[in-house]
Amino acid sequence: MYSLIRPALFTLDAERSHRAVLAGLVHGAPLTRLLYGRAVPTCPVRVMGLELPNPVGLAAGLDKDGRAIDGLAGLGFGFLEVGTVTPVAQPGNTRPRLFRLPRSGAILNRMGFNNDGVEALCRRLRASCYRGVLGINIGRNADTPVEQTIRDYQTGLAAVYALASYVTINISSPNTQGLRDMQGGAALDELLGQLIRSRDNLHEQHGRRVPLAVKIAPDLDDAALAAIADRLQAHGIDGVIATNTTTARNNIPERWRNEAGGLSGRPLGARSTEVIRYLHDCLQGTLPIIGVGGIDSDATALEKLEAGASAIQLYSGLIYRGPALVRECVEAIRARRT
Questions:
Q1: Is 173 a catalytic residue?
Q2: Is residue 43 within 8 Å of residue 55, measured between CB atoms?
Q3: Which domains does the chain show, CATH number per domain?
Q4: What is the rounded distance in angstroms from the CA atom of residue 134 to the CA atom of residue 115?
């Protein structure tokens, strides 16, 4: 079915098309389950102490505000991640800010954490029927002073804690000024230390321990990756998501090379896999890696797992291939295990 509607969707501006797909998922949740979800086999895996029915998840960014969570659940994902959400609603960057690069199998975005704010997200999640594994990705408001960055993450964590299966700390988007500076040195140490203390307090209040994951950029050298791996272990972080979008402009047409934003999709695939492999060597199994970036086939899904990922997430590949990609990846992973 997706192959029939994709040409029409691709005639629209990318952001308008995105909104149309989410609206369709909102109203077509029972249909998505009938057409796609039932065809996805079980392939259970345990990640961050969470039991997933299969290791193929939805990456953050596709449904920032949790509008279409029931429809997305019907596609057969083993887990969903919504967000990035900020404490206060913000419009994001000016348009146009989302672009498809079909010849490259890529998406370029400079959305800038456009979202309705954490309270609106929580209201929608409480109203949804989804009871599967849910990650909530939190970030900083664009106008928050740098010295108050940690407060934004603490606010987001407290607000989503009761609803999340796990929480992702997004410090790697290239579209919020200064955010990537949190990925190293004293800034990372202070952020992780404060959030672990906040999580411990919330654990006592709610009587449940919610795992914390950190999402990192692909544009880090080996020394920076090794330092991050060391700090994640030292602070007791539960998982790492590798990777976010890239500021590199490899393997795309000249027309797009000076366009600002983060690049995802096929051109990111090889670098994302390199990062996963290097992190896996550094971490030695002490915490799981969720692989994301350039997965558009069963072969690229298996590459991420062979590099050391315990689970994967889809976004750009889903835009180009459609919901059938979920089943294709799960079936390949299941076949590889048998």
A1: yes
A2: yes
A3: 2-337 (3.20.20.70)
A4: 18
Q: Residues 173, 264, 272, 316: which is the catalytic one?
A: 173
Decide: pTM greater than 0.70. Answer: yes
Sole residue written with tokens 């700090």: 231
What does each C-alpha distance from 189 to 202, 211, 228, 230 come to in angstroms?
20, 18, 9, 10
Kindly give the confidence (pLDDT) of every residue in the chain, 338 residues in length, as a single tens digit, with 9 standing for 90 and above.
Answer: 788 889 999 999 999 999 999 999 998 878 788 878 788 999 999 999 999 999 999 999 999 999 999 999 999 999 999 999 999 999 999 999 999 999 999 999 999 999 999 999 999 999 999 999 999 999 999 999 989 999 999 999 999 999 999 999 999 999 888 889 888 889 999 999 999 999 999 999 999 999 999 999 999 999 999 999 999 999 999 999 999 999 999 999 999 999 999 999 999 999 999 999 999 999 999 999 999 999 999 999 999 999 999 999 999 999 999 999 999 999 999 999 87
